[in-house]
Amino acid sequence: MLEKIGQPGFETLSKPDDVALKILDLALAENDELTVFEVGVGVGATTKPIAEKMNNKGALVLFSRSNDVESLAADLLALGYTNIDARWGSQNKTYSGYHFDLALAVQSGALTKVDFAYVDGGHVFHLDAPTTCILKEICSVGGYLVFDDWYWSLGASPTLSPDINAATARDYDSAQIEASHVRMVCEIFLDRDKRYKRLMLEKGTAVYQRIAQ
Ligand SMILES: C[S@@+](CC[C@H](N)C(=O)[O-])C[C@H]1O[C@@H](n2cnc3c(N)ncnc32)[C@H](O)[C@@H]1O
């Protein structure tokens, strides 16, 4: 998987999220044994520097399609990273996804807390709303929830815009095509939750910290 970074066709997935990595540095300065989730791994452009920064301490839990999670975990293992949890990959069924596998992981008691979550998956409300509702309950006090693509919309997406992608016009209504779903999720579930403080919104990445039990 990591060999795809920088290759033609993977340009938009090849740049790590600097804002997320900067916040991870802050979190690791406080505690170097964190439980970190990455939700949506792409080709591992951000996963690899996360693993490097964690330096085999704590646990890095990956949520994405299972073939991607397994291939990325194998690459990271080959680089010497043994703290990767690759148990929660999602199938390719229409309604499968990280929202449901995260729910299963928490319901079973296999995952009980997160100190730093980087959410960069499908960016649509039906995936990210339940994901955020779960993450915000298991986030440790002082922990961080980081969301990429605050401004993203289906309508403006170079690959999913209904002008290019007939499935978008079939599957989503006009309000859903126009909306910035990540922004909606954050404004509804985090900006209104007194346990959370929005620390910044930089380069389209929003950072929240849990400030109260
Ligand atoms: C934008 S990419 C992630 C990029 C990565 N975080 C990075 O910084 O390089 C989005 C990822 O979310 C995954 N994804 C989208 N919808 C999903 C779903 N329903 N279930 C599991 N993974 C999904 C995609 O397969 C893709 O790997």
Helix/strand layout:
Blueprint: H1 18-30, E1 35-39, H2 47-54, E2 59-63, H3 66-78, E3 84-85, H4 98-107, E4 114-119, H5 125-138, E5 139-147, H6 166-171, H7 174-178, H8 181-189, E6 196-202, E7 205-210
Parallel strand pairs: 1-2, 1-4, 2-3, 4-5
Antiparallel strand pairs: 5-7, 6-7
Helix pairs in contact: 1-2, 4-5, 5-8
Bound molecules: S-adenosylmethionine (SAM).
If you had to describe this structure to a student in words, what would you say it looks like?
This protein is an alpha/beta fold. The protein has a single domain, classed as Rossmann fold. It is built from 8 helices and 7 strands, in the order αβαβαβαβαβαααββ. Strands 3-2-1-4-5-7-6 form a 7-stranded mixed sheet, with helices on both faces. Helix 2 links the parallel strand 1 and strand 2. Helix 1 (18-30) packs parallel to helix 2 (47-54) and helix 5 runs parallel beside helix 8 (181-189). The chain is globular. The mean pLDDT is 98. The structure holds S-adenosylmethionine. S-adenosylmethionine binds at residues 13, 17, 40-42, 45-46, 64-65, 68, 90, 97-98, 120-122, 127. Residues 13, 17, 40-42, 45-46, 64-65, 68, 90, 97-98, 120-122, 127 line the site of S-adenosylmethionine.
